[in-house]
């Protein structure tokens, strides 16, 4: 199946554009954030997409690039959500939602699946974040709250084993607190693992010197982004 | 003559003893051997340590086993999912123990246990609270954490096809943890949807060779967990 067909299939399943996204909020909406990340996924890549906004990335991979999607519960060559009459409750993704398998897909058990991840065979993983530090540390599995039920899933394996980790996240929390900060206050998922961050305000590269802004969302300037960031940003 | 068939789910789990460690296949409902779990509820063994990726949904299957007070400890990667209230409630009340393991580490611990490997090193969880108190070691300039292999007294798994030797194939992403759990348990009990004659499964496509399987029960029309959950069914 050509990538064009794949992308349009994913596209055909887009739920109605979220009204939240369509508000007059400044910066990129969630679809545009996913689109930005998708531009940076190379042709021929094996890609694992996290739950939430990262799942949307598959719809926006540019025409002409063929990308193979891995889901850690045992499928390489994941296709889009099937029609209702084609759903098999034993063909699901890591979020436990029904998916399809492309022609040329492969099923495997969990140890093989995580050998793909931990053995550095997956090229790109796109994840959500609670916090990212100036050094690229990621916190995305627990707030550390005492009454929370801790649940980690495959996040620590993905950040430890996948060659390139992209993060898609709102630039601040709903309360306006920065999510990009000097040091993560939440328990870490991994140390120094994030390569690039796609927020509603900017695309940011993690460098040895700190977080470097490589692109600003329309209508947003560097100072606006800096004011909403908990560590010093670098200009590209 | 070798014939691993057992007449009923009840007979297949009859010797599971109080305090046993039981691996249960499945990722969410995909691959969950729900009829064997219900037989274990009827059987009533208590103070079990259960190894599964999750903690079940609603009030059937694994969630019902936990709700029935038979599980003293869960070893899993993701104990909270949609429709999962039984485990979180007991955990908050301090009535069940949890060992939280990253999903890939869980899979590798099971594979190692099944292969006679007592411990191994991985980069997953280094620098996070889940590596606290564990032995660390440097290899080629990178830090790794030691994890122990996992074995069990029993494994309860589900297959699509089984023959009398115990050769198995699975349905799509229902495979997940089953092949490695079959290797890691002293006694592996399989509920298969279809029992076939020896030779009907092409040796080239056998996923679990029969040496890892002890008992086979045919359950032609297994219940679908999500259907039971949405219908509000409880077990027993």
From TrEMBL, chain A:
Organism domain of life: Bacteria
Alphabetical list of InterPro entries matching this protein: 3-oxoacid_CoA-transf_B, CoA_trans_fam_I, NagB/RpiA_transferase-like
Source organism: Shewanella sediminis (strain HAW-EB3)
EC annotation from Swiss-Prot or TrEMBL: 2.8.3.6
Name recorded for this polypeptide: 3-oxoadipate CoA-transferase
One function term, GO molecular function aspect: 3-oxoadipate CoA-transferase activity
Top EC group: transferase
Keywords, sorted A to Z: Transferase
Classification via Pfam families: CoA_trans
Family per record: Belongs to the 3-oxoacid CoA-transferase subunit B family.
Automatic annotation (TrEMBL), chain B:
InterPro entries linked to this entry: 3-oxoacid_CoA-transf_A, CoA_trans_fam_I, CoA_transf_BS, NagB/RpiA_transferase-like
Assigned EC number: 2.8.3.5
PROSITE patterns attached to this UniProt entry: COA_TRANSF_1
Swiss-Prot/TrEMBL keywords: Transferase
Gene Ontology MF annotations: succinyl-CoA:3-oxo-acid CoA-transferase activity
Top EC class, one word: transferase
A Pfam family reported for this protein in Swiss-Prot or TrEMBL: CoA_trans
Family: Belongs to the 3-oxoacid CoA-transferase subunit A family.
NCBIfam families for this protein: pcaI_scoA_fam
Protein name stated in the entry: 3-oxoacid CoA-transferase
């Amino acid at each position: 199946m050509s990538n064009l067909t794949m992308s349009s299939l994913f596209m055909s399943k887009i739920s109605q554009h979220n009204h939240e996204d369509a508000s007059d909020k400044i910066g990129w909406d969630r679809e545009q954030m996913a689109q930005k990340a998708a531009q940076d996924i190379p042709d021929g890549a094996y890609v694992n997409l996290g739950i939430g906004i990262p799942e949307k990335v598959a719809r926006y991979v540019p025409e002409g690039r063929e990308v193979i999607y891995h889901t850690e519960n045992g499928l390489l060559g994941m296709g889009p959500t099937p029609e209702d009459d084609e759903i098999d409750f034993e063909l699901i993704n890591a979020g436990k939602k029904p998916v399809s398998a492309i022609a040329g897909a492969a099923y495997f058990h969990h140890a093989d699946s995580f050998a793909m991840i931990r053995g550095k065979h997956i090229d790109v993983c796109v994840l959500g974040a609670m916090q990212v530090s100036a050094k690229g540390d990621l916190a995305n599995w627990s707030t550390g709250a005492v009454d929370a039920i801790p649940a980690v899933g495959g996040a620590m394996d993905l950040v430890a084993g996948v060659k390139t980790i992209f993060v898609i996240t709102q630039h601040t929390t709903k309360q306006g607190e920065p999510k990009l900060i000097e040091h993560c206050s939440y328990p870490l998922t991994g140390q120094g693992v994030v390569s690039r961050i796609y927020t509603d305000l900017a695309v940011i590269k993690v460098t040895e010197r700190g977080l470097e802004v490589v692109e600003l969302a329309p209508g947003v300037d560097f100072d606006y982004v800096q004011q909403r960031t908990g560590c010093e940003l670098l200009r590209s | 003559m070798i014939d691993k068939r057992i007449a009923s789910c009840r007979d297949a789990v009859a010797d599971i003893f109080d305090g046993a460690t039981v691996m249960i296949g499945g990722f969410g409902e995909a691959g969950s051997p729900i009829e064997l779990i219900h037989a274990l509820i009827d059987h009533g063994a208590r103070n079990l340590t259960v190894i599964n990726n999750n903690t079940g949904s609603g009030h059937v299957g694994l969630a019902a086993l936990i709700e029935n007070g038979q599980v003293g400890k869960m070893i899993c990667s993701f104990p909270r999912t949609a429709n999962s209230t039984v485990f979180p409630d007991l955990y908050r009340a301090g009535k069940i123990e949890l060992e939280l393991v990253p999903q890939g580490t869980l899979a590798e611990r099971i594979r190692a246990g099944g292969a006679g490997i007592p411990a191994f090193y991985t980069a997953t969880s280094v620098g996070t609270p889940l590596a606290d108190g564990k032995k660390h070691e440097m290899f080629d300039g990178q830090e790794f954490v030691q994890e122990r292999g996992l074995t069990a007294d029993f494994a309860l798994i589900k297959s699509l096809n089984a023959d009398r030797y115990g050769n198995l194939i699975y349905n799509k992403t229902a495979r997940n943890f089953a092949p490695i759990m079959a290797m890691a348990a002293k006694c592996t009990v399989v509920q298969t949807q279809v029992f076939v004659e020896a030779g009907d499964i092409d040796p080239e496509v056998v996923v679990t060779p029969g040496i890892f399987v002890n008992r086979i029960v045919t359950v032609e029309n297994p219940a679908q967990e999500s259907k039971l959950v949405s219908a509000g069914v409880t077990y027993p």
